[in-house]
Amino acid sequence: MTSTLSPHIITVADPAALAEAAAQRLVHRVARGDRAAVCLTGGSSPQRLYRLLATAQWRGKIPWPRVHWFMGDDRFVPQSDPLSNMGAARHAFLDQTAPPQNIHPIATDAGDPDEAARLYADELRKFYGSDRLDPARPLFDLVLMGLGGDGHTASLFPHAPALDEQERWAVGVAKAGMEPYVPRVTLTFPVLGSTREMLFLVDGADKRAILSRVLSGEDFPARRAHSDGELIWLVDRAAAPEATR
Ligand code: 6PG
Questions:
Q1: Which of 18, 156, 231, 243 has the most CB atoms in a 10 Å sphere around its CB?
Q2: pLDDT digits over 182-203, tens only?
Q3: In whole angstroms, what is the distance from residue 178 CA to residue 24 CA?
Q4: Statement: the pTM of the whole predicted model exceeds 0.70
Q5: Nearest 5°: CA angle at 125, between 184 and 123?
Q6: Angle, CA 178 vertex, CA 123 and CA 210 arms, to 5°
Q7: 47: helix, coil or strand?
Q8: Counts for the chain of helices (H) and strands (E), in that order
Q9: Residue 24: in which H helix or E strand, if any?
Q10: Which of 70, 73, 179 has most ligand 1 atoms within 8 Å of its beta carbon, as the pocket-test mutant?
Q11: Average pLDDT over residues 34-53
C-alpha cells in the first residue's frame, strides 16, 4: 500500500449527488472483513450523507453489527449540545442504526480536552490492538474529512502545533481557529491517515476559493492530510475549481 501524494478529485453535480456518492463509497469500504471502522467528521458537509444512511434505501446496505463508528474531532461540549459532532451524527443516523457498543464518541465529559484526547487515544489503540500503526494494516477503512474556510480539517487549524504531532494519536485543542470557538479534541494526521480511504467532502460556492488554493498545493492543514490508502476529494460543482468542473 502506498501513500497517495496527489489527490484524486471527483466532481459531482450537487450536495444530493455528493451524499449519494459518499454513501456508495462507504458501503463499499465496510463490505469486507470481520469488522470495519469508519471515522466520521463534523460540520455541515456530511449531514446529508448521515441522514441518507438512515433511510430505508441505504440502511440495509450496511452490515451494522460489524461496523464501528469513530469521530475525527469533536467540540468539547456534551453530546446533547447542538454543537456536538457525535451528537449530530447520532441524531442523524447512528442512534437508529448502529449497535450502541459500536459507537465510539470522544469523552467530552472528561475533565478537560487533553484528558479526553488521552482517553480516546487509549480507546483507539485498544481497538487497533497495538501502539504502533502499521501502514499495511490501517486503523480505519474510511476517514471522512471536511474543509474549513481557513483551510483547516478535523480540528487541525493553521499554524497549530498539533499539525506536526507525530506521536500522540489525539490532542486537546484549547483554542479553535474558527467558529464555533469552543475547545476541541482532534485526531492527529498520522492517525487520520491510517486508513484505506480518506474522503474529503466539500460543497458550496463559499468553499471554491479555499478549495482551489488547497488543491493547487498551498500549505494549508487540509493539504497536509495523507492516507495510507486512497485520498479522494469529493466535491460538488459549486465548490469545484474551474479546471475540475
Ligand atoms: C468541526 C469539523 C471541521 C469541519 C470543517 C468544515 O468540528 O468543525 O470537523 O473540521 O469539517 O470546518 O465544516 P463545514 O462542512 O461546516 O463547512
A1: 156
A2: 999 999 999 999 999 999 999 9
A3: 31
A4: yes
A5: 55
A6: 105
A7: helix
A8: 9, 9
A9: helix 15-29
A10: 73
A11: 97
Task: Tell me the per-residue pLDDT of 95-151, one tens digit each, with 9 for 90 and over.
Answer: 999 999 999 999 999 999 999 999 999 999 999 999 999 999 999 999 999 999 999
Ligand 1 centroid distance, CA of 148 (Å): 6
Cα(232) to ligand 1 centroid in Å equals 17
Domains of the chain: 8-143+175-204+218-233 (3.40.50.1360)
Half-sphere exposure in the Cβ direction for 208 (13 Å, CA): 14
Band (6; pLDDT cuts 50, 70, 90): low
In this prediction, residue 242 carries a pLDDT of 79
Atom nearest to 184 CA in ligand 1: 7
Name residues contacting ligand 1 (CB within 6 A).
Answer: 41-45, 73, 75, 85, 146-148, 152-155
In this prediction, residue 3 carries a pLDDT of 37
